[in-house]
Amino acid sequence: MTGLRLQEVLTFEVATLSSKLRAREVSSAETTEAYLDWISERDGELGSYITVTQERARADAARADREIAAGDWRGPFHGVPVGLKDNVYTKGILTTGGSKVLADFRPGFDATAWAKLASQGAVLLGKLNLNEFAYGGLRKKCRNPYDPERLPGGSSAGPAVAVVAGMCAAAIGTDTSGSIRLPAAQCGCVGLKPTYGRVSRFGVIPLAYTMDHVGPMTRSVQDAALMMNVIAGFDENDSTSSREPVPDFTAALAGGVRGIRVGIIRELSDGLSDEVSRAFAVALTLLASSGAYVEEVSIPSLEFGALINATVTWVEALDYHERWLRERRNDYGREIRLNLETGMMIPALDYFRAQRGRARILAEALGTLRDHDVLVSPGVATTALKVRDYLRMDDKAKADLGYRNQLRFTQPFNATGQPAMAIPTALASDGLPISMQIVGRPFDEATVLRVAASYEAMRGPLSPPPI
Question: pTM of this prediction?
Answer without folding.
Answer: 0.97
